[in-house]
Each structure stands twice: as C-alpha cells, then as structure tokens.
Amino acid sequence: MRITSNAPPLLAPVTAPPAASPVLAPLAAVAGAFTLAQLVLVPPGMGLGWDESVYVSQVSPHAPAAFFSAPRARGVPLLVAPVAVWSSSTELLRVYLAVLSGVGLYLGLRVWRGLFPPRVPALAGALFATLWVTLFYGPQAMPNYWVAIGALVTAGCFLQAKAQATTPPYSLRPTPLWGAAAGTALMAWMRPTDAVWVCVPLSLLLLFGARGWRQLQSRLAAAMAAGLGTGAGAWVIEAYVRYGGLLRRLDDASRVQGGLGWHIAVDDQLRSLVGRTLCRPCTGELPHVAIYAWWFALPVLAAVGAAVAVRARRRTPTLLLLACATTAALPYLFFIGYAAPRFLLPAYALLAIPLADGLLSLVTGPGGAWRPVAGTLVTLALVAHLGVQYSVLKRTVDRTSASHRDWDRVAADLRRLGVRPPCLLTGDYAIPIAFYAGCASAAVRGNNANITRDGILRAAERVPVATLVAADGTPPAYARSWPAHEVAGFRLHVAPRGR
Q1: In angstroms, rounded to a whole number, what is the distance separating the alpha carbons of residues 314 and 317?
Q2: Closest to 388 (Cα-Cα) out of 456, 295, 484
Q3: What is the pTM of this model?
Q4: b or e along 314-326 (b: 16 or more beta carbons within 10 Å of the residue's beta carbon)?
Q5: Residue among 64, 16, 58 at smallest CA distance from 440
Q6: Nearest residue to 345 (alpha-carbon basis) of 160, 175, 111, 105
Q7: How far apart are CA 313 and CA 167, in angstroms?
Q8: Mean pLDDT, rounded, of the chain
Q9: How far is the C-alpha of 249 from the C-alpha of 258, rounded, in Å?
Q10: How far apart are CA 132 and CA 397, in angstroms?
Q11: Based on C-alpha coordinates, what's the Rg of the chain?
C-alpha cells in the first residue's frame, strides 16, 4: 500500500532572490551612463554661469542673494539647497546635480513601462541623454532639464492611470495619481508657464476624451491641479509680496524677455544649436547644415513613430506625447524674440519616445528580426549624429570654462584691490562675478535694475564698491573718476577708500 501525506516538508526548497527586472535594467544602464558622461564631458570645475549664480545665491551663504527677476521661479534654489546651504564648492554641486539628473532620467523613463515595448524607453533615454544640450545642462543649476523630467513623469503617469481605469479589472492604484501630481509640481516649481503649456493636451483629453474613465477624471484633474498649484501658487504669492501684484509681475516678466508676442524664433533656435547658450540678439549666418540636420529629422521620425503607433494599437500614448511636445515648444518657437537651446529640452524629452519607436520599426521586421541594410544605415546616421553632438558639446564646454575662468580672475583681482565682503559690484557681468567674489551686485538700469546712482554712492561710503566695464565700453558717470585697473578683458573702476 502506498501511503501519502499532506504534511508540509520539513525543509522548504530554497529559492533564489528575484533577479533585477529585465525591463528596468536597460533604463538603469542608460541613466548611469548619462551621469558618468556628464562627469567626464562637462568638468565639475567649470564654474557657475550667470543664471546659475542668481539661483544658487538665493540659498548660499557665500554671497548675498542676487536680484531675482520676475520670470524666475524658486524651484532651482530648492533643488540646489541640500548642497549650496553648507558648501561653496562648485565641484560638489556639479557632482550632486549630475547624479540627481541621472536618477531623474531613470524615473522619467520608468513610468513608461508597459505603455511601450521595453526597448523603446531605453532607446528614447539614450537619444535624449546624448544630445549636447542635455549633457551640458544636466549638471547645471538651471530649470529646463527638470521641466523635461517633470513632463515625462506627468504624461507617463497620466497614461498609466488611464490604462488602469479602462482595462479590466478596472482597479486604480494611487501611484499614478501621486506621480502625475509630483511631475506637474516639479514643472511648476521650475517654470510655471512651461508646466501650463505641457499640460494643455492632457487637460483637453480629460475634458473631451474621457469616455469610459469618468470615475478617474476628477481624481486625475485634482492631482494635476494640486501639483500645478504648489509651484504656480508660490509664484503668484511671491508676485504680491515682492513684485506689486500678479499683473505687474507678468508684465515685468514679458518685458525682461523682450516683450512676449508673435515672434518667429525658429531660425534663432537653429543658430543656437552651434552651442550659443543664449542667442540674444540672434544674428549671423546659420551654422553648417551638419549641425542642425538632426533637427529636421525630428518631424520625419515623429511621423514614422505615429504610423507605427497606429499599427501597433498604441495611438493614444504616442499622439499625446507628440501633442505635449508641440505645446511645450510652441512658445519658444513663435512667441519669444530670442533663443536658447535649453528652452526646447522638454520638447526633446517628450519626442524621444515616439522617435525611438519609429527608429526601431525601421531597423527590425514584424517578428523583431534585424534588417541589415536599414539597420546599418540608421546606425551610421546615429554615429554621425553622436559625433556632431560631441563636437558641439566640447566647443561649448571649452568656451564656457574659459569665460568662467576670466570671471574668477576678476574676482581674485577685486580681492587683491581691497574689494572684499561686504562689498558691492556694478556694471557688466556684475551678477556672476559678484557671486564669485562674495559681493552683492546691483544695476541702475536694465532687466536687473535694483538701485539708484545715489544708492551706489552712499554704499561707497560704507563698503568697498567697484564697477566693471567691458573692454569696448565706457564707465558710468559716477565711476569715471575712480581708479581703473585692467584685468581679463575688463576695466575695474574701484571707488576710493573713505568715500
């Protein structure tokens, strides 16, 4: 007779711990390579730029806070505060931001898991991370990269919530709602107006395309409104506290940006792709076609990605990404009279996923088989593209590093001439150089005007004061009798001691 027993075995079988998800591992590899590339190709010792000095000075004890003009938002000072409040090391801040931007890229791609085949977000991350403008601004204290990450998170979580609400068993977890709120908040804290533009297609889909998921509509709208309200609300409150009201701040913000209105800035953006971090005024010849050829490939590949999405029955995610990318780019292509390549980072990040989908469809057949001819051509084109991006990045880093070294030399000469904290600096490039020297900065005219001529003269009676004049410029009337010193392409007019 055979005796059987239902008793549990004395020793349970040993099971290996679950391996890392094969879906997430490529995303982690892309994000890690992105962080490493920043540390290698954008030296942490490059120094802070003009806008970075403004943002970092708001929380750094190294120098008084620089004038915070109306268009700016408080997201970047909050982002850098964990390092800047206790250390003045630019190198440490760059490393911190490079690591943080890699984590942000990973999270921005991870939310798309399940919405596209696993290889699509990985390739999209690689395409976005290898643009020179992404590598250059990833480790910088600037808002645009973080708007891009927030846009990816918001759109991805929005679609994840929709998928859960319209797919059996119709159970909605709170994670996508929290993610949509967090992504919207990140954008709004960095640049409230950018957050509004990115969210326009999402809001329209909620209002007019929500059939079958009505129970989600109010919850998702509330999550996004809460996220937008945190950053935009802080911006509005500050408008009444410091700028004389919301309308006054909006008017000042428009003036600082040259007057918002109908401006065709497409050609300006093309000129900036050569590495002009701020193209204002944006004059001169267009760069060589090799510099901007990839820019004209974007709409073609986007159309291919849209066709692939329709065939693969993932039309909504792709079309929503294309719509959000369009609205994110619209104000910087048609409503502003100058250009900076970083303005389009959110659009590039959103476009990367449909582009990756389209590229993969070109090099693989229906069953995933490699197409030798198409695959070779696309690979060669990508290698050439990477070469162009690296070339522009290197020139931009070299030029930026050189100018920042000049600023550091001017700051050292200020200290040598007795202009030490507490001190005041005015004139050309006063804001960044004042931060390098630990001084306050001031201007009597222009977008950063925050003092009068008499105010400068009164300050000269209490603290060391100097005025910076470019090599081809003339000093203001109040500083013409001050002793002048030549350094690094500037003339330093230092107020006599005892004034």
Answers
A1: 6
A2: 295
A3: 0.93
A4: bebbbbbbbbbbb
A5: 64
A6: 105
A7: 14
A8: 91
A9: 14
A10: 10
A11: 26
SS3 for 441?
strand
- Please calculate the CA angle 48-50-54 and round it to the nearest 5 degrees: 90
Residues 129 and 38: beta-carbon distance below 8 Å: no
State the burial class of residue 281 (Cβ atoms within 10 Å of its Cβ: 0-12, 13-18, 19+).
exposed
| Contacts with 61 (C-beta within 8 Å, 6 or more apart), sequence order | 85, 88
CA 386 remoteness from chain centre: 20
Q: Which residues contact 311 (CB under 8 A, 6 or more apart)?
A: none
360: its two tokens: 């993969």
In angstroms, the CA 250 to CA 238 distance is 12
* The pLDDT of residue 212: 60
3-state SS track over 94-124: HHHHHHHHHHHHHHHHHCCECCECCHHHHHH
| pLDDT tens for each residue of 365-415 | 777 788 899 999 999 999 999 999 999 999 999 999 999 999 999 999 999
Three-state SS across 179-193? HHHHHHHHHHHHCHH
DSSP string, 482-496: S-EEEETTEEEEEPP
287: left (phi over 0), alpha (psi -120 to 50) or beta: beta
d(CA 438, CA 255): 29
SS3 264: coil
Task: Give which of 165, 169, 179 is closest to 111, Cα–Cα.
Answer: 179
8-state DSSP, 212: T
Enumerate residues 6+ apart whose C-beta is below 8 A from 215: 165, 172
- What six digits make up the tokens of 125? 């991350």
3-state class (DSSP) for residue 158? helix
- Which residues, 6+ apart, have CB-to-CB distance to 193 below 8 Å? 331
Residue with tokens 């003269």: 457
DSSP annotation of 8 reads P
Token pair in block for residue 104: 């942000």
Residue 70, CB-side half-sphere exposure with 13 Å CA sphere: 21
Backbone angles phi, psi at 469, to 5 degrees: -130, 130
Which of 359, 284, 303 minimizes the C-alpha distance to 117? 359
Residue 426 three-state SS: strand
Task: Return d(Cα 404, Cα 398) in angstroms, integer.
Answer: 10
- Is residue 74 a contact partner of residue 230, using CB atoms and an 8 Å limit? no
Instruction: Give residue-wise pLDDT tens across range 70-97.
Output: 999 999 999 999 999 999 999 999 999 9
Extract the runs of DSSP E, i.e. beta strands, from 296-399. none
Token pair 């998921």 in the structure block, residue: 213
